[in-house]
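Hey team,

Filing this mostly as a record. A colleague (T.K.) asked me to run one chain through the structure pipeline before their review meeting, and I want the input and output archived in the tracker in case anyone asks later how it was produced. No errors, nothing strange. Just documentation.

Input sequence:
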Amino acid sequence: MKKLLSLLCLFTLFFAFTCENEPLDFDAETGGTDADLLGEWNLVEFDVEVSTSANFQGQEISSDVEVYSTTVDYTLNFTESNFTTNGSYSYVADIVANGMNIEGEPYTLENVSGSGSYSVNGNEMTVDGSFFEFSFEGMDFAELNGEQTATFEISDNGQTLIFSQNETTTETDVATGVTSTSTQVSSSVWTRGANSSPDCTAEEATNEAAAAYNNDNTNEDLCIAYKEALENQIAECGDPDGSLQDIIDDLGECSSGSDSSGILKVTTGTLPIDFTQQTVSINQGIITVEGVSEGGSYQIYFQVAEGDTGADVFQNFVLTINGTEYFPSTQGFDDFTSNTSASSDNILQATFYGIVESAAGADLSLTQGQADVMY
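Output structure:
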């Protein structure tokens, strides 16, 4: 459920608009126009913070989501009643769910283009369409684009445009009984003419290296190439907020680890985890697998009886995230599942996925779990 709440928050915030519960009465023919808006604007940055709490059958669930831009090359052009968008941008989404921090990695959208209509009333804008696209794990949210409102401000003698939002909403889902309260603070900053940030040709190389690494985050060469691209971008363009260096630090040494004897990895939410330090042993017919990620923040443990294959032969599975232990969920919805294809002749091969939950009731969604190790 937290994954769904976070996903909805991310999508809503990416527009930097307030999405109302009921459709707005919108007519571009009669709406007003602010002449100072007309023309092209260049995106400088966007930042969104959302705090969400939900109550489901007496259980409190909380999450904090922050989405912020890392690199931008994106324009917004207003005519008298319409707008168009074009370009590319990269962003990071960090999530804290029930006290557990899940740091995101840069995601890049390229060759983005869009259009819509708008009207203004004072410092409020009503838009039919969206200024941004948003993609999450291959899902398409185009059907959610609709009429929206925003507050805007033009300053610096007409050279800076800022959209902002600070709103708290409470809703109850009739079907599930879930009551959620969400506080959203967001802004996007745009400027006239050429982008106010100096051209940084190294950004393109970084984006390409990031895309390659994210498609295969166990590849040591791609990791090294990504780090080198980040370091080159820092040298050429600087790193005012330290976000590029944070990514370099998270990548670590790009080594599979001296204790590694195979593949042991999983994705929690949107966070891929590679357990580079592995210990695989057998005692009295029980294979025990233990793994530790680079830096030691994440650990995995499970056992399989030698010779057992098929569904759900994992025993005593535990995933530890920043000191919190998570165990297989058996609540009847997206339960934890394992499939073992080999557990003999010194080879263990298996996949696993589904929901795991802590003793406090917090849950995580696991995908792409894989074990291919020797013992």
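Quick notes for T.K.: Residues 2-192 form one domain. The CA atoms of residues 213 and 219 lie 7 Å apart.
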